[in-house]
């Protein structure tokens, strides 16, 4: 596969933002506590002016069947979040992205991709749980529940039972949930997301990408996301 020449720029940009406010493949596994605002502080500047991504980068960022939490027909821009449900910084990013969904409505498509890191033993199972819930239209509900109880299941040896209990509490069809959760199709979806992230050169979570530009977002300061979005969308 021939990589787009701009793909390494995404990787280099990300490397410069992983020092604070992110989980990386080189970090120590966390018995998670909520990160302080100081620990997650980042510059609000984007790496470069967002532009329409090349066909190859666009394919890696946003495959046709990508999960969305906002998919307006005439969106002016696309925001992609690569997340790891066992990463505490991703838990903080969720509320920021939900706020952007509410604020930008029909102007912004928001895609959620999985990137469970090797340092997080239970992250792949959590990703499969969210994906299985998404099959019943409950991606956001399960994602919120999984993050809310992150300290509980992240150290558990019986995550399957816990995720099934969450599905039951959310009123999902538990038989279908379990079938999807254990399915090869869902496992392959999670693996494909991870492979796309690695092909892009990403090395940690959460990673927010506007068009083909990695954004440095401080979860304690919404303006670090709204400012580049306003600039791009001409708000």
From TrEMBL:
PROSITE patterns: PROKAR_LIPOPROTEIN, THIOREDOXIN_2. One of its GO terms (molecular function) is isomerase activity. Gene3D superfamilies: Glutaredoxin. Pfam families: Thioredoxin_4. InterPro entries: Thioredoxin-like_fold, Thioredoxin-like_sf, Thioredoxin_domain. Belongs to the thioredoxin family. DsbA subfamily. This is Protein-disulfide isomerase. It comes from Glutamicibacter creatinolyticus.
